[in-house]
Amino acid sequence: MKIVILNGSGRKGNTDALINAFAEGAKAANEIDIIETDKVNVSPCRGCGACKCTDGCVAKDDSNAVVDRIVAADLIVFASPIYWWGVTAQLKTVIDKCYCKAAFLKGKKAGLILCAGAPTDDIEFELIKKQFDEMSEYLSWDMVFYKPFYAYNKDEIRNNPDALNEMKELGESFC
Asked: What residues have CB less than 8 Å from 167, skipping those under 6 apart?
């Protein structure tokens, strides 16, 4: 299986630790492609409609190359810290650009990893999960997992063997 992980964090902290643990568990039987959303040159979607949801984006940037990597995936994992009750702007920009080939994203498996300095039952987690539930319904995705984590300090997850083991075991479940 090809697994594409969209890393919404620009730091090498909690979200990165969760992604790495998941990838470690999944790599034995899967091709893993991690897209660092803060490192790609993807402009915001202008809603021009030229793509027709199939033809790709007209922007002269990394949009088509990034979206093609996502389209090629069997499982798309979205991972982000929570900033202001949402995923990071970098991740949201990449998600918005998926519109240019939305017709090719139908029927995928998807997963969601979130990390914030608030309890996991806080409204910010609920808001993002609901957004992804709606995207999943629209694109006929099978949302195979949702993993919320609390971590306030930058390296809190790296020092949490239970969280790291949980993510590694989740990755292994796709082997």
From this structure: 18, 21, 22, 25, 113, 147
Which stretch of DSSP H or E encloses residue 134? helix 123-139
Q: Tell me: the pLDDT tens digits for 105-144? A: 999 999 999 999 999 999 999 999 999 999 999 999 999 9
73 DSSP 8-state letter: -
| DSSP symbol at 31 | E
- Cα–Cα distance for residue pair 121/102, rounded to 1 Å: 31
Q: Check: pTM over 0.90? Answer yes or no.
A: yes
User: How many angstroms separate the Cα of 78 from the Cα of each of 51, 60, 115, 155?
Assistant: 23, 25, 11, 20
Please classify residue 42 by burial: count the beta carbons closer than 10 Å to its beta carbon, then call 0-12 exposed, 13-18 middle and 19+ buried: buried
Residue in the structure block whose two tokens are 């091709």:
31
